[in-house]
């Protein structure tokens, strides 16, 4: 004896399994079996509605609000051009590299490259200022 009104078929084209406990996708609102309910598994075209991410400015680490329909890259770029509070002169600049006789270090106070002999530690020349 069959129950034709009981359960629903999975909306995934390759599946169509009859499921007695079907799940409804909260983005596209189609019905899926438990194997195809995630956005990736059924290649949901409406998943962007639920994908809420807040981009962060790479310079000042401030979260940038993005309205629906706006491209995050453009909004962050506009922030960097107009509203960004990043000031490179206030940042500690530490540039490390190798030299034949040791390690060279850029000193932000003297604005010079210094060569540290390879046997010395960083605390010896006062890098933590």
Per-chain topology:
Layout lengths: L7 E2 L8 E2 L3 E2 L6 E2 L39 H11 L13 E4 L2 E6 L4 E6 L12
Antiparallel strand pairs: 1-2, 3-4, 5-6, 6-7
GO molecular function: zinc ion binding
Organism: Gopherus agassizii (Agassiz's desert tortoise)
Keywords: Metal-binding, Repeat, Zinc, Zinc-finger
Detailed description of the structure:
The chain has 129 residues and is mostly beta strands. The protein has 3 domains: 1-51, Zf-an1 domain; 52-86, no CATH class; 92-125, no CATH class. Helices cover 9% and strands 19% of the residues. The chain is built from 1 helix and 7 strands; from the N terminus they run ββββαβββ. The strands form 3 sheets. The chain has a 3-stranded antiparallel sheet with strand order 5-6-7, with no helix packed on it. A two-stranded antiparallel sheet has the order 1-2. Strands 3-4 form a two-stranded antiparallel ribbon. A hairpin with a 2-residue loop joins strand 5 and strand 6 (102-107). The longest helix is centred in the middle third of the chain and has 11 residues, at 72-82. The chain is elongated and about 85 Å long. This is AN1-type domain-containing protein. GO terms for molecular function: zinc ion binding. InterPro entries: AN1-like_Znf, Znf-C2H2_ZFAND2A/B, Znf_AN1. One of its GO terms (cellular component) is endoplasmic reticulum. Keywords: Metal-binding, Repeat, Zinc, Zinc-finger.
